[in-house]
Amino acid sequence: MAEICSQLLHEEGTPMLYADAKNPDSNKVYQSIGFVEAGRIADIKFDLRP
User: Fold this and answer.
1) What percent of the chain has pLDDT over 70?
2) Per the confidence metrics, is the pTM higher than 0.70?
């Protein structure tokens, strides 16, 4: 992950990661390589059945 992000930054890209907020271990790893929380995504499901 760190190598891919490094390459993206070198190419003036912006790395983006969607991570499970319920997994603190993986989030610590992502933070250790420079990711910061910038927002949250909510899952919304619509049941269209009558």
Assistant:
1) 100
2) no
